Structures are given as structure tokens and as C-alpha cells.
Amino acid sequence: MTLLVTGGAGFIGANFVLDWLAESAECVVNLDKLTYAGNLETLASLQGNPHHVFVQGDIGDAALVTQLLQTHQPRALINFAAESHVDRSIHGPGEFIETNIVGTFRLLESVRGYWSALPLAEKSAFRFLHVSTDEVYGSLAQHEPAFAETHRYEPNSPYSASKAASDHLVRAWHHTYGLPVITTNCSNNYGPFHFPEKLIPLMIVNALAGKSLPVYGDGMQIRDWLYVKDHCSAIRRVLQVGRLGETYNVGGWNEKPNLEIVHTVCKLLDEMRPKADGSSYATQIISVTDRPGHDRRYAIDARKLEQELGWKPAETFDTGIRKTVAWYLAHPEWVSNVQSGAYRDWVQKQYAVAEGAA
Ligand code: NAD
Ligand code: TYD
Question: In this structure, what is the dihedral angle of CA atoms 128, 130, 328, 314, given to the nearest 10 degrees?
Fold first, then answer.
């Protein structure tokens, strides 16, 4: 049995692959374009593992995807591949349209070709699991209830609009062609191997480097934070017992304003890596111009996933953020290679060929 994972060299995809192979002997074929966000150094512990096959390539490359499907005959595909950073989508939306919309469309078509020709038993067992975000629902006012799966789609950024479009395509391929899809919409993740352009890892690495900690606007925007390994366990559960054509919201019941997150990171660093002069890292916090169209609040109602599939997060925010800060302190080399871009050279050195066991 084999899984085809796309985007498995990114933050969540790589955590998923590492967790999967730690618990299962089922092979993973990992297709990733290795954009700036894809980092094979994250998967270094899998080097020589015959259960992991890494392939550099684009989900929109129909010939490559078809060849992978034919060769490896996966029982499921999990689609993590995406452009994922809201700020980048504001500066350059083109890549988001290309990968998140056109790429997902091409991927769906390649998978449909493969799936249609499967024998009946394999055909009904096959799953296309699409990993999406709570940002497709738009922004909540302070006292509105959290997003349920029935909430209307109201995306506000080029990123969330492109993810919303991909969700609609996935839904349509189920209703029109019968493709066995399931979609998950998750809140903000944090944890090991998070690229330091997103809030939590950026604050950790900037704090340690003595740089300023830039908080957008008044810092009172609210996100609902989930430890990445809990997202991975939710995906495993949905893959196992999720109902076809359904969407499942994934969240940690951890709504926090950004400023509180930044202060928590500073407090943990003060404890775990106190500054020589005795001052707090919080003195590095500065307020900067707000993000255009900045969504005020996200919150996930994860009751469907809990009640139907029996999933619950294992970490509270307190335990998850402590583990995360400790992980960054313990992995300065991963951080500095990401910051200097050296992880790209590392990939060149370690992987002489594009396809092979990683
Ligand atoms: P990421 O940016 O860290 O990783 C994305 C990965 O996809 C990278 O390895 C990149 O190289 C790869 N990729 C990009 N374009 C590709 C293409 N055309 N073909 C093949 N590979 C390509 O993102 P992430 O944070 O790991 O997010 C993974 C998925 O989860 C995304 O779909 C994102 O929308 C969704 N999601 C993320 C969060 C979050 O908080 N990070 C929350 C909810 C949902
Ligand atoms: P981010 O990690 O980019 O995730 P998303 O935009 O997908 O929620 O940002 C999380 C929140 O933190 C968001 O409200 C924007 C804010 N933010 C800052 O205040 N400063 C920063 O430097 C960054 C990167 C984000």
C-alpha cells in the first residue's frame, strides 16, 4: 500500500510524512516542487528509508503525476501542495492562482484519469484528501460563533480566495465525476519546521537574533492555533474514517490575539534562553503598518470532527508552544540554513538525482 503526498517538503506536509513513517510501514511517495517553502533538510532523518520516495515536481505537471500514479498505484492522495503565505499573496498573487487553483485542477484531472480505470474495489477504497484552511470563511466579528462547516465562503486575501477556489473544484469533482474526495479546513498551525516568515517562528528567530518583533497594526487580530502534530493526527483520522464528499473543520479551541502570542513567546524565551543583560525579549516588540485587508478573527468549531470521528487535539496551547520554542532553541542549524538559503545547497549536495529514496 502506498500514499501519494503532495507538498510533503513543506511545514505541515513534512510533519505529516515524518509522523506517518514513524508509525506505519506503508510507503509514501512525496511529490514537491521545492519552492522557497520546500525544504528537504526537514526530511533528512528519512534518508535511506526505503518507505519514502521523494520526487521533485509540480502538481500541475499532468505527465509526471500520471506516471507517478501508474507506477506507484497509491490507495490515496493527500494534497498539501500550495502557496501558503498571505503576505506573499498580497505582493504577488500570480503563483497562488497558478498552484492553488490551476495546479489543483490539473491534479484533480490526473487523479480522475487514474481513478476511473481502477478495478472496482480499489476504486471505491481510493481517497483524495484535500488540505485546506479556515481562511476561506473570511473574518469573524468579536462575538460571532466560530466557523462551522456550513459557514459561507467569504475569502478576503488572494491566498484565501485561491484556496477557496481549490476547495470548490475538489467539491465539484466529487459531485460531477464521483471522485472520492474529503476536504479538511484547518486553523493556524505552529510547531517544528515552520518556515520563519510566519508569525510564531519569525518571532522566535528574530528575538534570538536581537531583531525587532513586528506586530501588525494593534496586534489584536485573533487566530485559532493548533499544534501541527494535532493537525497531522486529524488528517490521519479523516483518511481512515472520514465520510466521502464531506468537509471537516480542524481546530484547537485556542483563540488568541497576536500580541498575546508574541508576549508568550518572549516569556518562554526569557525563561529558556535569558538575555545576558537581564532584559526581556518583549522590549524588542514594535508595532508596524497593518496588513492590507487583514482578517480580524478566525475561530474553528471542530465539533463535527470530534463527534463524528472521535478526534481531539493532544496539545493545549501552553504545552504546544513550549515544545515549539524548545524545538527552535535545539535546532539553530535548521534555522540558519533556512535563513541563509543554505538549505538549497544542502539539497544539491544530498540529492544528486531528482527521484530516489530520500
Ligand atoms: P508550506 O508553504 O510550508 O508548504 C507548501 C509546500 O508545497 C512546499 O514544500 C512547496 O515546495 C510545495 N509546493 C508549492 N507549490 C507546489 C506545486 N505547484 N507542486 C508541488 N509542490 C508545491 O505550507 P504549509 O503551511 O505546510 O501548508 C500546507 C497546506 O496546508 C496548504 O495547502 C495550506 O493552505 C494548508 N494549511 C496551512 C495552515 C498553516 O497554518 N500553515 C493552516 C491550514 C491549512
Ligand atoms: P501568519 O503567520 O502570516 O498567518 P495567517 O496570516 O495565515 O493567519 O500571521 C498570523 C497573524 O500574525 C496574522 O494576523 C498576521 C500577524 N503577523 C504579525 O503581526 N506580524 C508578522 O510579522 C507576521 C508574519 C504576522
Answer: -80
Which helix (H) or strand (E) element contains residue 35? Answer: none
Residue the block writes with cell 522590549: 283
Q: Which domains does the chain have, with CATH numbers?
A: 2-193+226-255+296-317+341-357 (3.40.50.720)
Indicate yes or no: pTM above 0.85.
yes
pLDDT of residue 357: 38
Residue 164: how many other CB atoms lie within 10 Å: 23
* CA dist., res. 17 & res. 3, Å (int): 10
Supply the residue whose CA is at minimum distance from atom 10 of ligand 1.
38
Cell numbers found for residue 110: 490526473
Catalytic (active site) residue 298: no
Place of cell 539539497: 347
Q: What is the pLDDT of residue 358?
A: 37
Q: Is 135 a catalytic residue?
A: yes
Query: ∠ CA 134-250-190 to the nearest 5 degrees?
Result: 80
The rounded Cα 336 to chain-centroid distance in angstroms is 21
